[in-house]
């Protein structure tokens, strides 16, 4: 878990979250990340709503701005990609113990979800991704991404992770010359993480 703090943005309504993403995207163009991140935190009362201190909330929003900005810069190239992967964090599984019936294949490396729980986020996103023509990987960490992207020669990728990991992934995408789109986790942690399905649908 790259951040030293836990955040939870799931208390935001869908419309408030959309405005937050849109504003972050517009701010990204200005490059004045830190000044505007502080304003955004205040405007959305993010520190109070999430229980984060101001510095943590600003870090979170700065990363959100950077990811949104990268998404818009890479969008056109990404849309032309025909061979796409969707990388889902394993911590979004509804169970992290034996109750999860997924098989782990260390060769890929990825969990293969066996759809044991209808309302499990990983189950839902797996079905959605496959419907949209993606190869879906449920990965135990960001370090697995490079092997997957290289082995299958993908030319487009959507990743779901916390803002910090998505930022680190930008260097990898640059190195591999692959356009990507990032969906930031709305709740981070080692288990029970969450992301916004509507935000994902818009990017796929
Ligand atoms: S639906 Fe898939 S990921 Fe979720 S608990 Fe079951 S096997 Fe694991």
Offer a concise description of the structure.
By secondary structure, this protein is an alpha/beta fold.
Tell me about this structure.
This protein is of the alpha/beta class and 204 residues long. It has one domain (14-203). It contains eight helices and seven strands; from the N terminus they run H-H-H-H-E-E-E-H-E-H-E-H-E-E-H. Helix 7 links the parallel strand 5 (156-161) and strand 6. Helix 1 runs antiparallel to helix 2 (33-43), helix 2 (33-43) packs across helix 4 (54-80) and helix 4 (54-80) packs parallel to helix 7. It is globular and about 45 Å long. Bound molecules: iron/sulfur cluster. Iron/sulfur cluster (SF4) is lined by residues 93-95, 100-102, 113-117, 120, 122-123.
Number of strands: 7
Instruction: State the helicity in percent bands.
Output: 40-55%
Largest sheet: 5 strands, mixed
Distance between the termini: 25 Å
H-E order: HHHHEEEHEHEHEEH
Instruction: Give the uncertain stretches in residue-range form.
Output: none
Q: Total helix count?
A: 8
The overall pLDDT average reads 91
Specify Rg, calculated over alpha carbons: 16 Å
Please state the overall shape, judged from the principal axes of the Cα atoms. globular
Q: Which ligands accompany this protein?
A: iron/sulfur cluster
Q: How many domains, in number, for the residues?
A: 1
Provide the β-strand percentage band: 15-25%
Instruction: Identify the strand order in the major beta sheet.
Output: 4-1-5-6-7
Class from helix and strand fractions:
alpha/beta
